C-alpha cells in the first residue's frame, strides 16, 4: 500500500478510483472548532465519514465512498 498526502484542491480529479481517503483538518487546541471545509468537497465526491480521531490540534477523518 502506498500512502501520500495532498491538499484536497489538488486531488479532486484523482478520486474516481479511490474507495477510502483520509483527511486531516486543523483544530484550534482547547476548542471544538475544526476547519472542516474540505469535508464538503469530499462528500460531494461521494465519500462519507466512517471514523473520526480527535488529536491535540487536528482531527483525522477516514472517509469511504458510498455505494
Spell out the blueprint of helices and strands:
Blueprint: H1 8-11, E1 20-26, H2 37-44, E2 47-54, E3 58-65
What are its keywords?
single chain; 67 residues; alpha+beta; three-stranded antiparallel beta sheet; 2 helices; 18% helix; 34% strand
How many strands, which pairing sense, and closed or not: the largest β-sheet? Answer: 3 strands, antiparallel
Helix tally? 2
Rg over CA atoms:
12 Å
Major β-sheet strand ordering: 1-3-2
Could you give a short description of this structure?
The protein contains 2 helices and 3 strands; from the N terminus they run αβαββ. The protein is α+β, with helices and mostly antiparallel strands and 67 residues long.
What would your notes on this structure say?
With 67 residues, the chain is α+β, with helices and mostly antiparallel strands. The chain has two helices and three strands; from the N terminus they run H-E-H-E-E. The protein has helices at 8-11, 37-44, and strands at residues 20-26, 47-54, 58-65. Strands 1-3-2 form a three-stranded antiparallel β-sheet, with helices on one face. The longest helix is centred in the middle third of the chain and has 8 residues, at 37-44. It is globular. The mean pLDDT is 84.
Amino acid at each position: 500500500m502506498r500512502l501520500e498526502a495532498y491538499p484536497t484542491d489538488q486531488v479532486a480529479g484523482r478520486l474516481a478510483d479511490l474507495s477510502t481517503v483520509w483527511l486531516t483538518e486543523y483544530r484550534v487546541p482547547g476548542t471544538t472548532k475544526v476547519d472542516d471545509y474540505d469535508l464538503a468537497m469530499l462528500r460531494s465526491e461521494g465519500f462519507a465519514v466512517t471514523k473520526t480521531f480527535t488529536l491535540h490540534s487536528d482531527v483525522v477523518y477516514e472517509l469511504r465512498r458510498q455505494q
